[in-house]
Design brief:
Blueprint lengths: L6 H17 L4 E17 L2 E19 L2 E7 L4 H15 L33 H18 L3 E20 L4 E19 L2 E11 L8 H13 L10 E7 L1 H15 L1 H5 L20 E3 L22 E5 L2 E2 L6 H7 L13 E3 L6 H5 L4 E9 L9 E12 L2 E14 H6 L1 E4 L9 E2 L3 E9 L2
Parallel strand pairs: 7-12, 11-16
Antiparallel strand pairs: 1-2, 1-4, 2-3, 4-5, 5-6, 7-17, 8-9, 8-11, 9-10, 12-13, 13-14, 14-17, 15-17
């Protein structure tokens, strides 16, 4: 797959749509054109199960007339289709209510000169190669332990995309990106009980992926160690979230401090900027310009230049996560977060995972979270979970059918430590975290 050849075409289409909107009376206009193609291959029980090839493109146009907004989209890049999409957006704008906060981000904030962040590392695996890797992952999982009784399959995926953005400030930009992964999911069985688990590796560069057989073995190890799980008695104890789940905890922070939650007054951290919401040792920064990282971007969805910023310093919330619209609603400036956060980095506070495991005589290590019991308006937190008891620094027996509960405000303040095992497979980069005390409800 090579999306480089399409980049100038995408820019031209986006610019053309903006010019057409201006010709039809729009005060301001913005357009995004994208192209994506990919391959996903799955094997199960040693046989090829599915092959999917994806090839998508699209154009989205938004216009503003006297504070009124209209949007339309099309998957057809033919000139007539582009004209029709623009005319539809202009027509819609004439029937919407005026909003004084609507409009483009300020012109001086545009990323007129932006860096190449090395986000595009194409990989063009032949079907035979993808199948070989998927089989290698599944075979390694099934051979690890005789208790691995079934497989939900192993998948190899590769995707590449290019996205262009233009607006009536005269800004236009385009960059390409890639994403590759190998995943495996298997079932372990013992004494009539079944346990499932999975693992995956993800990177923009396929050469940086973990070995396929190691992905399979880790999936099998995770499934086998869950066998023999019991339901513990209800108590309060420290809880460790491993890195791959810790990013979800900080995802609740982002949901609470994003601009829409703030101006709608629907957040447990309403007007919390300047407050200490974490222990003093906790630091969180955002670095959108990390070369090759999953969450990197040279500009946000409004063309605003991204930049490194501190979100939490000394446990104190330094600001919110804002687009230009939400910033205007709050009387603030955009933080270049239209479309979300980019590489939110939680600084480790301990040198090794052993420091977390030795912190308390008895703890609960979460392995899986179930359900959606999180209320970001009140901060109430209640999730079904499975995991392991930790006794005197050793990971012990598996437990299941438990509920871990608390309130996010209290949980944040009780984050005792952050481990160095940073999970880089997403836009939130955190190590494992130790929450000093939560309710672990079981029998």
């Amino acid at each position: 797959m090579d999306v480089h050849a399409t980049q100038q075409e995408l820019v031209d289409i986006a610019v053309q749509a903006v010019e057409l909107a201006k010709q039809r009376g729009a005060d301001q206009a913005e357009a995004g054109a994208s192209f994506e193609e990919g391959l996903s291959l799955t094997v199960r029980l040693g046989e090829l199960e599915s092959v999917e090839r994806q090839r998508d493109r699209g154009l989205a146009i938004t216009v503003y007339e006297a504070g009124r907004k209209g949007s339309a989209s099309t998957a057809d890049f033919a000139p007539r289709s582009i004209v029709e999409a623009v005319e539809k957006a202009v027509s819609i704008a004439r029937f919407t209510a005026a909003d004084e906060h609507a409009g483009l981000a300020d012109a001086e904030l545009m990323a007129y000169d932006y860096p190449d962040l090395d986000l595009y590392r194409p990989w063009n695996p032949e079907l035979e190669e993808a199948e070989r890797l998927a089989l290698q992952a599944e075979d390694a999982a099934r051979q690890l332990d005789k208790r691995i009784s079934n497989s939900e399959g192993a998948t190899v995926s590769s995707a590449a995309a290019a996205q262009a953005y233009a607006n009536s400030h005269g800004f236009s930009g385009v960059y390409a990106s890639s994403s590759h992964s190998i995943s495996c999911s298997v079932v372990a069985q013992q004494n009539g009980a079944l346990e499932r688990d999975y693992w995956f590796t993800l990177s923009r560069d396929h050469e940086a992926l973990d070995a396929a057989d190691e992905v399979g073995r880790e999936a099998a190890r995770r499934a086998v160690r869950r066998l023999g799980a019991r339901q513990p008695r209800t108590c309060r104890m420290p809880v460790i979230y491993p890195a791959y789940l810790a990013r979800g905890v900080f995802g609740h922070l982002i949901a609470a401090v994003r601009g829409t939650s703030q101006y709608r007054k629907a957040s447990f951290l309403l007007n919390a900027s300047g407050e200490r919401i974490f222990p003093e040792h906790l630091e969180i920064t955002e670095d959108p310009l990390m070369p090759g990282a999953i969450g990197s971007a040279p500009y946000d969805d409004e063309g605003v230049r991204t930049r490194t910023r501190t979100l939490v310093a000394g446990g104190v919330l330094q600001g919110y996560v804002l687009s230009s619209y939400s910033a205007r609603r709050l009387g603030l400036a955009t933080t270049a977060n239209a479309g979300g956060v980019h590489n939110l980095i939680v600084r480790p506070t301990v040198a090794s995972l052993n420091d977390l495991l030795q912190a308390h005589p008895r703890m609960f290590l979460v392995n899986e979270l179930l359900g959606q019991g999180v209320n970001t308006v009140t901060g109430d937190y209640s999730r079904g979970a499975a995991g392991f008891l930790i006794e005197r620094g050793e990971v012990g027996e598996p437990v299941h059918e438990v509920t871990i509960a608390g309130n996010l405000r209290d949980m944040f303040l009780r984050i005792e430590a952050v481990g160095p095992d940073v999970d880089r497979r997403g836009s939130i980069l955190s190590g494992s975290i130790l929450v000093e005390e939560m309710t672990v409800a079981g029998a």
